[in-house]
Design goal:
single chain; alpha+beta; Rossmann fold; Immunoglobulin-like; 3 domains; 6 helices; 17 strands; about 35% strand; elongated
Amino acid sequence: WSLPSAANALCIRDRSDTWAPEDFFPTVPDALAKNPEINTVMYMWCGQPETAEWQALLQNYISRMNALEQQYPKILFIYATGNAQQTDCSGDSRNQFNIALREYCRSQGKPLFDFGDIDAWSNGEMASYVVPNWCIHAGQSIPKEHPDYYDPNGPGHTTLASCENKGKAFWWLLANLIDTDTPVKLASFKAEVRGEGVQISWRTELEWDHLGFSLERSEDGHVFTEIDFIPAVSGSSSGQGYSYRDAKVKKGVQYFYRLKEISRDGRFEYYGPVQVTMPLPNTFGLLNAYPNPFNESTCIAYCLPADVKMQLDIVDAGGAHVRRLENGWRSKGAYEVSWDGCDDSGVVLSSGVFLVLLTTEQFRDMRKMVLIR
């Protein structure tokens, strides 16, 4: 059968038909080909390492897992220890197998589901192991594991308490695999020119327990400043889409944007940056002043597609001259100039409607502004 393809669903396939590793590993490529949704694989041991050849079995297991890791780099392969519930040489071999596998995973940074450490048994036996003579650690103890969960007169290590303990451990493993310490997993993040501004958009795969995103901008890619805060979608735990339009940009300037994801506990993580360049103008003209209406000052932007002699003036609603902001030759490009709401003499003007005029020998443009005191 095949796994369902529901987004963000957890699907577990139990290959109970393959107890022995020699049966399991040859079937993995075919299983992955038929179920491309699978992104995590784990082989669980039972009592197979209880023989004198446990070292060869361990080496074969590690070699096969390494081969799969190289063949499928995008799939996570989880190592696992096995059941050590046995006495005499069988239990000793299982125990030594688990010890060696733990040491390998720790030294190599491999993910390990330590079933042997969370299972339940109560033998804890020490013996001389005269017959048979293949016990490597004769006289050593097979450590007891959670004996309070073990029922020697009933189901052994499959008691309800033991199974519950192993179930909790399995969910803890899944939580670590999806990295619950990181409240957000970002699927995409991009910035692109849209008209006279920049459209920034991002999508999450998962998100939980976080406040939202601080959107930051830079012109050099090093020093960033917050331009806005976008709250997380309320009550969301699945993936969400976000977008923001940055209208306060200049022609011909390169911008860098990054996200600062902020958790409820104050932790944060950065994503990005992404980069976009505003194109140089190819037409004469004024852009809308911002802010508008304004109280103290406003920014006036204009574009020149060629080198020209120009003037930039402020007039009142009746056309009377108020202020000259620019006068002279300017090279091709995009410009911004601030107006503080004063006339040429520095007198603070009262509330009213004003016009900004951009004038060259062959072109004239005009935009309206509202001053509110």
